[in-house]
Amino acid sequence: MMSTENNSQMDPSTAFDHAQNVGETVRRKGHWHGWVWLTIGLITPVFLIGANVNSVPGAVQIWIAIGFMTVGGVLAIWETRRGLWGREAAKADKPFTWAYMIAIAVFAVPTIILDPTRADAWLITLALLPSIPCLIAAWRILTR
Fold first, then answer.
1. Which pTM was predicted?
2. Which run of H or E residues covers position 58?
3. What is the pLDDT of residues 54-110, one digit of tens each?
4. How far apart are CA 91 and CA 123, in angstroms?
5. Do residues 136 and 38 lie in contact, with contact meaning Cβ atoms separated by under 8 Å?
6. How far is CA 16 from the centre of its chain?
């Protein structure tokens, strides 16, 4: 950060360039949250199908779950350490997180009851459902 003494000696053109650079840095860092949402939206169906279909061997299911937890954990830690959220990310995060959690529950109930053996169309459709709020949140954050 510049001191007051340096700011008073800065010509308007340099100050404007500096403000634009700071604005671009904040915008880029603010978009990071959109990339997190996009990543979670893309890997969620793989996790849900791979970890719930009985035709996938148990050891593979465990590794799929560990992979999903690892990616989610790393993204959450990285996101927390970045310390900067854009305005749109802050507005979108809570409602889209709730929508994601509800969609996961909508997926979980029938798969617990029916215990699918194959990746049938209904299972794939339900597995894609939680990606919808993730992709919408990513789009909202990344396009603003």
1. 0.77
2. helix 58-82
3. 888 989 999 999 999 999 999 888 877 876 677 788 888 899 999 999 999 999 999
4. 31
5. no
6. 33
For residue 70, what are its two tokens?
Answer: 């690892």
| Burial group, residue 62, by CB count within 10 angstroms (0-12, 13-18, 19+) | exposed
Neighbours of 34 (CB within 10 A): 21
The one-letter amino acid at 70: T
Residue type at 15 in one-letter notation: A
Question: CA 98, 101, 103, 106 torsion: positive or negative?
Answer: negative
Structure tokens belonging to residue 37: 């949402």
Identity of the amino acid at 16: F
Tokens of 62: 């465990």
